């Protein structure tokens, strides 16, 4: 985004413009929330504001299309792993046609879950000294490309293992091929 004061190109989570030093508007997010969300603060600012005002449902296309990867990117490690296992379980129990229903559930739950997590983190940081707030927020929140990549590698390994397992099982059941 651009600084409204000097026009310099700056990161959207900055609280002060690094070029002219002017304070930047935080919009619908608190300082801590903006640092925790870090990317797409405009989008999450609008959605968090609606949830804060009592909106019960919300929709997130990224959470719908690829919840485990979206959650991992947003550093929600446990939801990422659990959803990953949930999708695996649908294939394990041979009901893969239920996957779209699960995707819709995750599309609906994504933003409320992320909002609650960001709230909890922000409340835990209320006593944080202001000079450390930015570093702590960026460490605990923010986004991370490494986690979804690791999840993709795990998916690949499970797929390879599954092929191998099926192949071995087929050989045991039908030894003459
Ligand atoms: Zn500026």
Automatic annotation (TrEMBL):
UniProt keywords, alphabetically: Membrane, Transmembrane, Transmembrane helix
Domain Zinc-ribbon: 3-24
A Pfam short name: Zn_Ribbon_1
Entries under InterPro entries matching the protein: Zinc_ribbon_dom
Spans through the membrane: 76-93, 99-115, 145-165
Entry protein name: Zinc ribbon domain-containing protein
